[in-house]
Design a protein that fits this description.
419 residues, alpha/beta, Rossmann fold, 9-stranded mixed β-sheet, 12 helices
Amino acid sequence: MSTSDINERVSGLAEILIHLSEKDLTSAKLEADKAGCSDVAEYFLDLHRRNLDKTHDSEESHKNSIASETSSISSSPPPRPEIKTTRGTVFCGDSSELMQSVLKPESVDLVMTSPPFGLVRKKDYGNEDADLYLEWFEKFAEGFTRVLKPNGSLVIDIGGAWKKGLPTRSLYHFELVTMLCRNYGFHLAQEFYWWNPAKLPTPAEWVNVRRIRVKDAVNCIWWLSRTPYPKASNKRVLQPYSKSMKHLLKNGYKPGLRPSGHDISDKFQRDNSGAIPPNLIALANTESNGAYQRYCRERGLREHPARFPAGIPAFFTRMLTDPGDTVFDPFAGSCVTGEVCERLDRQWICCELEQEYVEGAKGRFGEPNGRLFTQASENKRTEPYEIFPPNSLPIDEQPMPLTQDGGQNHLRVERKIEP
């Protein structure tokens, strides 16, 4: 620690000592004497140094742990086929090795996946540390460039992360898409956002307790491609017309220039059998008692805790591939992607590192003849989800002042809503 740093710490400690009660100051002096310190300030500085050392050791231990995990993956046996159907195969092992040694170059039309998110808190499904995420992902990026066809697509569902102990966000998922474009030649065809209406109001500390952030309910989905013009058609994913559009198609409208500057032609009155969807996907992730879950429970297997709903891979599989094309999921988990592709008549390959999750995935596929256990639709719900416009609820701001320190000191503000 430099002299200026010590002076700054001493100055800060002096301010702390001023606010200590007489009883606390006496207690601190006794502890300083026991520790062999000349005064209370030296005692607090010593405590601060020891705390820094512990923090450094903890960080080094965490980094070494991740390095050890990476090493064990690289030394694991080669991926082996565990499940086979008439259209696809589930491999157990490291998918980066599968892409380098088993899959043929330019043999995949779509990589559709949801990799372990870069979180600050370790989860059961093997997520990576947010700070080390890019380095960990590089070997997979190299594999994607090898196996994707020139007109193929890479679709990555990836959630954000909060910085440890702070109400601010990590940029790792934005840095990931930047790395894939700058270092590996991918194009960002379009960004999508998956809104999960059923998501709980988290993180609880910032949303429910301190009330300084809103519910985090959206995942980013990056659609990337090797060319600016990958094969695609939004006609495959049309949505039902809204009531107002149905009324317009039935009763007509007056073409012409609108106040917004848009020149509305008479072509808007043409019925195209559905509306073009936005890049916001509204889909609740609520399945809790499907065939997959029952299969796992009956056999005492862990259910994969981070499954995306079948509607996500179904949407992109329909829009970006034709029947008979090959879809690859390198972080397959419970193999939702494989099940969707089996029903949509696509060839598919899934790879999952954890043997227990592969065992659970057998519940998605059937008996030796390849018949599926589950025949549920990709999305049972056909009614739109509801989200209120901003400021829909009248609020009296007067009894609810903002926390001037941004909630740093956990200042509680009572909430009063007028009927």
